[in-house]
Amino acid sequence: MSEVVERYTIKPIPDQERHGTARGLFPFWFTANSSAFTVVLGAVGIELGLGVVPTIIAIVAGGAVGGIFMAYHSAQGPKLGLPQLIQTRAQFGFYGALLPNFLIWLIFLGYIVGENVLAADALSGMAHISYAAAMAIACFVTWLVVFFGYRIMHDFNRVTALVALILFAVLLVRLIQHSSAAHLNLTAFNFPLWLLFFSINVAGQVGWAPYVSDYSRYLPSSTSPRQTFWYTYLGSVSSAVIFAVLGALAGSLALTSLESNTVGYLAGLVPTVGWLATIVLLLSIVAGNAINLYSPLLAGVAIASKDGGAAPGAAVRGAGTAAIMVITGYLATVVSANFVTDVSNFIAFLLYIVIPWSAINLVDYYLVRRGRYDTDAIFSPSGIYGAVNWRTIAVFLIAIAAEIPFMNAAYPKFEGPAASALSGADISWLVGFLVAGALYYLAVQTGRGRERAPSPAGSALAD
């Protein structure tokens, strides 16, 4: 049983517990984006008034750019054997990491609520049960997958990736058949709106960054960082692009129907086997939501304890994720019906917080420490990384402040002066990344010598 149910939470994974190859990351991350949530994301471009062609270009370009961030984070997992947000303590300090960790933890909960809505809608329509009952079932199934943990999640995603790809091919053919008789808006273009949608697709990938290495940390420490990067990147970006394109095509044909019942509309494209399409889409939603549930549990443990404590990992994971699902399941029953717009606003806002954190983390790992960390010290407030790194916190907050003039946020409604001068174009994510990365690098250079070198026993050295 211990080989099936994961035993660890946030502690480093010992070498003898490492297993798998980087190739396994491709189906894992392909499945993560092969859901109705990504289909909804693709329809946002149509909702904004863009034509099909500019929408698809933004989907491809945004996914390709955003995937770079998340894949570089993934490459950290095999070397350190740590959850992503635990490693944040090396930049922000033991207690200082609570700030970004808590903010990102809230973002996780937003994702779970969104996936819960899609799953309950689909299940209630297929099984003809109440929305509340469908929500309870969807939450329980997701919880069960996460209770077993890392290995079962990888196995589940491997199977789901194959059936999701087959479903995509079938749905794409059906949409093309429908579009041949429709008058589609192919070329409508507005650069500020295109740039906004491009940024939303960047965010769709960057949103995985705070927890992507959670799913590569069990790989052997000898795993090639290059292979880890590329299998993660290709799996995540390919599925994000093809399912978002599916959403763009569907939105151009029937945006209102797609908004009101995403899974129901897609299953209706293949009415003779609509029930089967619904099941496959539900499996994809559960797979993606399991990722969204597993990682906030790790983040919550990192917030609440030094190293996960003495309680068995399965018990902590079971109780913690159950509490999260009860809360998010309830929130999903009262969420706005205007779901496409809500997703757009949420994903766009996500960038403002995650991008500065990502820049700090990547610069620290690849340019400053070059993958060399004292993993023992990460679990001690008196270690070399300190209790609070005020310089890093200042950089993080300054970078967010630097984004504000360039923001064009729908909720809360705000358009900064720079965004206004750019006719509403939002490039705050780019500003935030450059400011956070550059300031952090400079701050570290001015403070060099204040940390002792990592001890050989506790360090992890990248290739």
Summary tags:
Hydantoin permease; globular; single chain; 2% strand; mainly alpha; 4 strands; two-stranded antiparallel sheet
Brief account:
Helices cover 67% and strands 2% of the residues. The radius of gyration is 21 Å and the shape is globular.
Report on the structure:
The protein is mainly alpha-helical. It has one domain (15-348): Hydantoin permease (Orthogonal Bundle). Helices cover 67% and strands 2% of the residues. It contains 18 helices and 4 strands. A two-stranded antiparallel ribbon has the order 1-4. The chain has a two-stranded antiparallel sheet with strand order 2-3. Strand 2 (408-410) and strand 3 form a beta hairpin. Helix 7 packs across helix 14. The longest helix is centred in the middle third of the chain and has 36 residues, at 225-260. It is globular, with a radius of gyration of 21 Å. Residues 455-463 have low confidence and may be disordered.
Estimate the mean pLDDT confidence.
Answer: 88
What is the structural class? mainly alpha
| Widest beta sheet: strand line-up | 1-4
Strand content: under 5%
Please give the count of helices: 18
Approximate helicity band: 55-70%
Taking the sheet with the most strands, its summary is:
2 strands, antiparallel
Please tell me the CATH architecture by its name: Orthogonal Bundle
**What is the CA-atom radius of gyration, in angstroms?**
21 Å
Compressed to H and E, one letter per element, the order equals HHHHHHHHHHHHHHHEHEEHHE
For the termini, the CA-CA separation is 35 Å
Number of domains: 1
At the fold tier of CATH, the topology name is Hydantoin permease
Name of the top-level CATH class: Mainly Alpha
**Which descriptor suits the 3D outline?**
globular
Low-confidence stretches are 455-463
Number of strands: 4
Could you give me the name of the CATH homologous superfamily? Hydantoin permease
